[in-house]
# Entry
Amino acid sequence: MDYLGQTFDPAPDAHILSLVPSLTELLFDLDLENNLVGRTHYCIHPKERIEAIPSVGGTKKINLDKVRAQAPTHALLNVDENPKDMADALRDIGVQVVVTHPMHPDDNVDLYRLIGGIFGAEAKSENLCEAYKAARRKLGHPEDHPLRRVLYLIWKDPWMAIDGETYIANMLGLVNWQVVAPAAGTERTGDAARYPVVDLSDSSLRDVDMVLFSTEPYSFKKADIAAFQDAFPVHAHKAHLIDGEMTSWYGSRAVRGLGYLETFATEITP
# Structure
């Protein structure tokens, strides 16, 4: 059963269209590469094998003619990454649409079993579940780590961050990092609240312990850290570059993400 409560019959011979980069990677890690007939141009992993899979567009807009040419039986979508009209268009041409929406890293266990169960990769999915659980145990409990207030930036011009109702925030919460987002402008709802525009100033940064610059969706680099440090010298020590794929990609990447987060937290937290 997927996020919408839809049930699916086992389909080990399915032709799969994946419109979510992290789920594309998951399909490879479940040895379902031969079932994968299409992807988005944002699907970039695994780098050495992904180019063999045809691209049908992006995560927000696809070319239905290219989709039809690949004749998928199933499509993998996500509530946050793909619009509803895309799902409706795929259903209209006879594609079974599997909708996902993991909000906490621990949701990955059900995600592995969903994909493995539909497409005949149950044994591989259970192996992945065990690998995730082992990494989760190694990370320990949140209270094993010092509490830190974190501003996690995902965009600039304007500055945008995340709030607590996101997968990333729940990932950071595993090491007792509490997400904060200094508000800018009027109150917002929906995605604008979950990914708010924020104000950066000496006063708004006063109660922030760390400012994390994510490498995606905006590709922050060391130059951005340097610019922040020049603009806010009192808060210069708070700025760190963080691998956005490791913190935001659910799916099989989450197993490595937990290990990455443990190492990252250990290295930058006194």
